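Retro notes (design track)

What went well: tokenization of the new backbones is finally stable.
What didn't: we kept losing track of which sequence belonged to which structure.
Fix going forward: every design gets posted as structure first, then sequence, in one message. First example under the new rule, 110 residues:
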């Protein structure tokens, strides 16, 4: 997903704000081949540094890896007294000039 660019709105958001303005979190893109423990480490690092993270995935396999990574990251961070929540949504992304729907997982402190 190296050429993925967010489009101007999140799907289903009646008060759509351009994706560039919505995001204050760092975006982590997950594929089917991503190792959940490696993604979890990245999520935990971004959470420690920024307080929020965004994970994007396209397709069932990638979304499965992303959800596993969030669960692992939650365990990593709970050891430090940080409790996180995951807010799922859809987002349109452009990949090689083709519009695709991705799963967006916004991770924040509880």
């Amino acid at each position: 997903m190296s050429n993925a660019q967010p489009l101007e709105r999140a799907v289903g958001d009646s008060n759509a704000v351009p994706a560039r303005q919505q995001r204050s979190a760092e975006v982590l893109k997950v594929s089917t081949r991503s190792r959940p423990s490696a993604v979890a480490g990245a999520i935990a690092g971004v959470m420690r540094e920024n307080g929020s993270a965004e994970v994007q995935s396209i397709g069932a396999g990638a979304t499965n890896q992303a959800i596993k990574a969030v669960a692992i990251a939650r365990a990593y961070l709970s050891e430090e007294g940080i409790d996180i929540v995951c807010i799922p949504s859809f987002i349109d992304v452009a990949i090689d000039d083709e519009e695709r729907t991705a799963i967006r997982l916004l991770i924040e402190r509880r």
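Added context from the reviewer: Strands lie at 5-6, 26-30, 52-57, 84-95, 98-109.
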